[in-house]
Every structure is written in structure tokens, then in C-alpha cells.
């Protein structure tokens, strides 16, 4: 079909429209109230790019019925699995799903490289540039696939953190072997399939060994890093096929993943190297401070309700436990009740509270908490001294004073919500259990702090019932 608009073919136009939807979608993802719409717009753009490729890339021919059937079968199977997973997934299991989908993207990029290498062997035009793109797509896509699968297994609790003895040396040797072999293939123009499978095996092995020792709490950072790898690998695929939509999509995913990785490391005040070789988190980290910590004071539901009802300003610090308890709607009800009583309530959002970037924003947006009520950590900290009560709900590491005052702590230097500057602190959690970094929290022993033990949702419901009686 040779229809042209503004000198562009329908295929080119579709790719431009798809690229614009990706950029718009990504932009909208940065604001919780527009994120859902942004995701849909980018999804439609992707649908358009797929449809245009099938319809306009090559002349339609009934002889290719097998190809069309395979594409259709792939679309149907992928859609059914994707929709089922997305509908079933719990908010707390979102990181593993992202990891799984990311792994699939990496696998696709790797398979594209395998197929294109085989095309070259059967008469394609061989150039060093083309070979480099194919080989890089294979390496990065395979590392991303196997690494993401290990990250998925770890977050599901099916694979334990395990470091091989001399693991770092083995990884460096593997990298040398991978790039040595790829360099040889690219420079010599050798199109040996067994060598390519060797490269594939080494890359898959590297992905496994690279992610295996990384601590549980650092998985979101690793997933984001692997996500940027997948983006790069997809961009190489875009080069190979001269597909601008794939190229733009890949570059956007690659750069967004890289920026997110850097932002998360900054939020934890750790370098990427420290994340990769630090083995931080997963509940196994040693407590930096041991010995006598002081006494724990508990608070009754009635006393907590009275404290809240007579406060002028309340700050809620949500954490992973809020997501586990699925208490987002309940906390929103508490917020409305307190506001009816004239209390000013805001939420202090730590950038790595929960288990994935933006976890708390997504959770609270789901419960229709108005976005202006969500304060970034820096703003929340500024207003802390004038806050009457801080309600820490299922958060632990992100309110740990050791980040400020204990240089031996693994989280030392991580910016935290300085709840101890408020007049009163109430922590809602089930027990004295540790957070993801696996360390003690001296906040629980702070003179201003009182513990309200129990499941966050139960405790909030009891608080609401009590407040209604006041
Ligand atoms: P956290 O330190 O993991 O603590 C969560 C607390 O919630 C636990 O101490 C637990 O105590 C409590 N809890 C669990 N279930 C609960 C329930 N049903 N009701 C009430 N409380 C419950 O969480 P966080 O303060 O949000 O910190 C996040 C951690 O993840 C940080 O270490 C951060 O560096 C890491 N991380 C996050 C990201 C990200 O992108 N968000 C990325 C990398 C790392 P009990 O068992 O006693 O109830």
C-alpha cells in the first residue's frame, strides 16, 4: 500500500504518532492523577505501532498465512496472560510483576538478535555495525532476562540471596569472556551459530550471577537498572528493523530506567556499586547498635484518638506495612474524619517508602487521597517541628534516626523523615519486627514515641470508631 500524507508513508506516520504517545504517556506518569491516563495513551500508541507494522511494513499476502497466524496467536496468548496477571496482582507484589514483564522484554530483544543473526547467515548483508547492534542486543537482552527472572524469584521469596565465593572475580571473568567473544565475532565477521549460542549462554549466566548476591531491599534498584538494559536492547532492535517507534520506546525506557536507578540510589544515599556488591537488606543485615535501647511505651486506642482529635496538625508517614495491611482506604477515612474535626492532616512521603518507587503515591491515589496532601519528604521535614502528632503507619527504615546519628548503621546517610522533631509520635505496627534493612530502630524507644501494636488496618479502624465517639 503506497498512501502518503505530508510526504510520509502510513507506516512512518504511525510510528511518529506512537512515539508521541510514548513521550506523552511517560510525562503523564509523573503525576498520580494523570498516570492511569498516561499509561493508557502509551498503550494505545503501542497498539497502533504493532498494527501498523503488521499491515504496512510489508505487502499483505495470503501466502504468509502461517506468519499472520503466529503473530495473532502470540498477541492473543500475551494479552490473556498479561491481563490476567495485571488483574490478579496485589499492590505489594507489583515489583515482581514489573520484573517479570521486564524479563520478557529482555527475552524478546535477545530472540530478535538470534533471528537477525541467522538472517545474516542466509544471505543478509553483513556489516560490522550491524553485527555490533545484533550482538549487543543479544548480550543486554539476555542479561536482562535472566537477571529479571532471578529478581522475580527473590521478591516472590522463592530464591534466597546467595553470593558465590569469589563471585565478583567470576563476574569480571565472565564479562571479559562475553565482550571478548562478541568483539571477535564482530571484527572477524564470523557467523558461527555455536559461538553465538556460547555468547547467549555466557550472558544468561552473567545475569544470574550478577543479581544472585544482591540483597532483597535493593531489588527495586536492580529491577530499575535491568529495565534500563531492556530499553537499550529494544532500542538496538529498533535500529535493526528501522522501526522508529521501537527505537523511541527503547530509548525512553532505557533513559527513564537509568534516571530512576540514580534517583533511588540518591534517596538511599548509596552508590550503584554499593547496591550491586553491598548485599544490603533482606532482613539479614546486622543491627549496628546493640545492647540496652531504653523502654517502649505503648498507647491505648482511646488515648491515641484523643491525642489526634485535639491536635491542630497531624502528619501521616506511610510505609510498607500500610501496603501490606491494605489500609489506604481506612487511612483516607481517618483523614476525612479528622478534617471534619478541624485537624490539618498531610502525608509525609519518603521516596523509597514501600517496595517500589512511588509505592505510597500509587497506594494513596488508589484511595482517592487528594494529591496536594502528599508532601515530599523535604517539605514534610520543614513542617515537622510545628506538627502535633506524627502517625507512622507501617513505616520503619524511612523514619530511623540511625540514618542521621549512627555512622556504623547500614542506612547511615539515607535521608529520612525526621518524625522525632514533632511533638508526639505514634507508631502503628504489629510487633517490634524490623524493616527491610533488617536493623533496629531506636525511634521506638524515643521519649516522644508511643507504640500502637496491631495490624495497621485494624488499628486505624479502631481509631476511627473511637474518634466517632468523641
Ligand atoms: P520497612 O522498613 O520495610 O518497614 C515496614 C514495617 O511495616 C515493618 O517493620 C513491619 O513491622 C510493618 N508491617 C508489616 N506489615 C504490617 C501490617 N499489616 N500492619 C502494620 N505494620 C506492618 O518499610 P519502609 O519504612 O516503608 O521502608 C522501605 C524499605 O525498603 C527501605 O529499607 C528502603 O530502602 C527499601 N527500598 C525501597 C525501595 C522503593 O523503591 N520503595 C527501593 C529500594 C529499597 P511489624 O512486622 O512489626 O508489623
| Average predicted local confidence, pLDDT | 90
Series of H and E elements: EEHHHHHHHHHHHEHHEHEHEHEEH
Rounded radius of gyration (Å): 26 Å
The number of domains: 2
Termini separation comes to 74 Å
Shape: elongated
Which ligands are bound? NADP nicotinamide-adenine-dinucleotide phosphate
Give the helix proportion (percent range).
55-70%
Unreliable segments (pLDDT under 50, ≥5 consecutive)? 282-288
For the biggest sheet, the summary is:
6 strands, parallel
InterPro entries: DHS-like_NAD/FAD-binding_dom, NADH_DH_b, PNTB-like
GO cellular component, one term: plasma membrane
EC number: 7.1.1.1
Transmembrane segments: 6-26, 38-56, 68-87, 129-152, 164-189, 195-214, 221-241, 247-267
Which key terms come to mind for this protein?
single chain; 470 residues; alpha/beta; Rossmann fold; 6-stranded parallel β-sheet; 60% helix; 7% strand
What would your notes on this structure say?
With 470 residues, the protein is of the alpha/beta class. The protein folds into two domains: 94-280, no CATH class; 291-469, Rossmann fold, CATH 3.40.50. 60% of the residues lie in helices and 7% in strands. The chain has 17 helices and eight strands. A hairpin with a 2-residue loop joins strand 1 and strand 2. It is elongated and about 80 Å long. The N and C termini lie far apart (74 Å). The protein binds NADP nicotinamide-adenine-dinucleotide phosphate. Residues 217-218, 220-221, 264, 268, 319-321, 324-325, 352-357, 359, 394-398, 428-431, 433-437, 455-456 line the site of NADP nicotinamide-adenine-dinucleotide phosphate. The chain crosses the membrane at residues 6-26, 38-56, 68-87, 129-152, 164-189, 195-214, 221-241, 247-267. It is a multi-pass membrane protein. Pfam families: PNTB (PF02233). It comes from Algoriphagus kandeliae.
Amino acid at each position: 500500500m503506497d498512501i502518503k500524507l505530508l510526504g510520509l508513508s502510513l507506516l512512518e506516520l504511525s510510528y511518529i504518532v506512537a512515539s508521541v504517545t510514548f513521550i506523552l504517556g511517560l510525562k503523564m506518569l509523573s503525576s498520580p492523577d494523570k498516570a492511569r491516563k498516561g499509561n493508557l495513551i502509551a498503550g494505545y500508541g503501542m497498539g497502533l505501532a504493532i498494527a501498523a507494522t503488521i499491515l504496512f511494513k510489508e505487502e499483505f499476502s495470503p501466502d504468509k498465512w502461517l506468519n499472520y497466524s503466529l503473530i495473532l496467536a502470540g498477541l492473543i496468548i500475551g494479552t490473556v496472560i498479561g491481563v490476567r496477571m495485571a488483574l490478579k496482582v496485589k499492590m505489594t507484589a507489583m515489583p515482581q510483576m514489573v520484573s517479570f514483564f521486564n524479563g520478557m522484554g529482555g527475552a524478546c530483544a535477545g530472540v530478535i538478535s538470534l533471528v537477525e543473526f541467522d538472517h545474516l547467515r542466509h544471505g543478509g548483508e553483513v556489516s560490522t555495525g550491524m553485527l555490533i547492534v545484533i550482538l549487543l542486543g543479544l548480550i543486554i537482552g539476555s542479561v536482562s532476562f535472566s537477571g529479571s527472572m532471578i529478581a522475580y524469584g527473590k521478591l516472590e521469596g522463592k530464591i534466597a540471596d546467595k553470593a558465590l565465593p569469589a563471585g565478583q572475580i567470576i563476574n569480571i571473568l565472565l564479562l571479559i569472556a562475553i565482550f571478548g567473544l562478541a568483539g571477535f565475532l564482530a571484527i572477524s565477521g564470523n557467523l558461527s551459530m555455536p559461538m553465538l549460542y556460547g555468547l547467549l549462554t555466557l550472558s544468561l549466566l552473567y545475569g544470574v550471577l550478577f543479581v544472585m548476591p544482591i540483597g532483597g531491599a535493593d531489588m527495586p534498584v536492580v529491577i530499575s537498572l535491568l529495565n534500563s538494559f531492556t530499553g537499550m536492547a529494544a532500542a538496538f532492535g529498533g535500529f535493526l528493523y528501522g522501526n522508529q517507534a521501537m527505537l523511541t520506546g527503547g530509548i525512553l525506557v532505557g533513559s527513564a530506567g537509568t534516571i530512576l536507578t540514580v534517583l533511588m540510589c540518591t534517596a538511599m544515599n548509596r552508590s550503584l556499586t554499593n547496591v550491586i556488591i553491598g548485599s544490603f537488606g533482606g532482613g539479614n543485615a546486622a543491627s549496628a547498635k546493640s545492647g540496652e535501647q531504653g523502654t517502649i511505651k505503648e498507647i491505648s486506642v482511646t488515648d491515641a484518638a484523643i491525642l489526634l482529635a485535639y491536635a491542630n496538625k497531624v502528619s501521616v508517614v506511610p510505609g510498607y506495612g500500610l501496603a501490606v495491611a491494605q489500609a489506604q482506604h481506612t487511612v483516607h477515612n481517618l483523614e476525612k474524619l479528622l478534617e471534619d474535626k478541624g485537624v490539618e492532616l498531610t502525608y509525609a512521603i519518603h521516596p523509597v517508602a514501600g517496595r517500589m518507587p512511588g509505592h505510597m503515591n500509587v497506594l494513596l491515589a488508589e484511595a482517592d487521597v487528594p494529591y496536594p496532601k502528599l508532601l515530599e519528604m523535604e517539605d514534610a521535614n520543614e513542617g515537622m517541628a510545628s506538627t502535633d502528632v506524627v502517625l507512622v503507619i507501617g513505616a520503619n527504615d524511612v523514619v530511623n534516626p540511625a540514618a542521621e546519628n549512627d555512622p556504623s548503621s547500614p542506612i547511615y546517610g539515607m535521608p529520612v523523615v525526621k518524625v522525632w522533631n514533632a511533638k508526639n509520635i505514634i507508631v502503628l505496627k504489629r510487633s517490634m519486627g524490623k524493616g527491610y534493612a533488617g536493623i533496629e530502630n531506636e525511634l521506638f524507644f524515643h521519649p516522644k514515641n508511643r507504640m500502637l501494636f496491631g495490624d495497621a488496618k485494624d488499628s486505624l479502624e479502631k481509631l476511627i470508631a473511637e474518634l466517632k465517639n468523641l
